[in-house]
Specification:
Distance between the termini: 4 Å
Structural class: mainly beta
Helix content: under 10%
Strand content: over 45%
Strand order of the largest sheet: 2-4-5-6-7-8-9-10-11-12-13-14-15-16-17-18
Number of helices: 3
Shape: globular
Amino acid sequence: MKKSLTALAALAVTGLASAQSSVTLFGVIDAGVSYQSTTSRNATTGVSTKQSQWSLANSGYNSSRIGFRGTEDLGGGLAASFWLEAPISNDDGATGIASFNRRSTVSLSGGFGELRLGRDYTATFWNDTVFDPFGTNGSGSSVINTVSGSTGIGNSNYVRASNMVGYFLPPNLGGFYGQVQYSLNENTKTSTSDTTTSSSSSAGRYVGGRFGYANGPLDVALAVGQNVAVDTTALTRKVQTINLGASYDFGPVKLFGELSNVQNKFDLAVGNSHDSYNGYLLGASMPVGAGLIRASYSTVRYNEGAIGITGEDPRVNKFAIGYVHNLSKRTALYATVARVNNRNDASYTGSLTAASTTGYGSTGVGYTGLPRSSTGYDFGIRHSF
């Protein structure tokens, strides 16, 4: 249960000014046993190698976190708010409130909408998580999410961006909603045209927007965004994302769907090129008594040449199914199983704990392992407060 703190308690715990009309402490503690395995093939010898790992992980159902938020009524329909949210690794206790890098915002809202400043989710990530039955958490997270956030693409502003100025439409528009965001790169500009380092370029800048309609059982949204990953005299690289997601709740079952296109564009000193990743997701959730069955199928197709892939029509497919049993409004048990298959030398990389791996089971000379399939299992408990 969310605990409303008095202004004095807020001052003692967080050091915030006591002028807030309300301050709330909230969080999620999620822990579970996870088993991940993967099989890869040596392209030279044809020998297959299997890797596996047992772990006590966190965030298999919901991301573990702790936060503080508050609102002050300024009168005349205006309100000032803050939101500070930190990730925690409750499986080993190594990460506590060291930073508020999940969200750190202050905002002013009213009849005009909301003006929000600070670190926040990007507009383009919202569709990936809202229209995924597994919410981009645990082994069930879609391959659209995993590929978009992979080191191969190198989009540091995929999930969140810092130094953000955001505007959100007011909630009284008959179901229509939207937001636009601009993240300042905060690099020093010089009076010359020298852009030999990222410190004198647009690297780190994010621009995006999301607009949708939610009314009754229907929710549909379109999002677009661009992140400048590198900007020098030799190379400018921009990651551009566009996705369209929708869900419809029929009552006995809720259906989800998403289309996604991510382009990794390289503007070189001589010539230009780009990699493209086209994905889609189909999913469903079905309430059963005190529980919820979740399932999804997602796929991403790599264009030829993407991060060095040369196979014909390379793609990665993932099927996931899970069950959540609610013991109360705040506590739930969950179980998930997911299976990943790579086709035609697609290089779906990541970590074992994300039900994926590079597939390199050997460090021998000339070894070029290609990941073929991965399987992940999560069994855990989630408690929110």
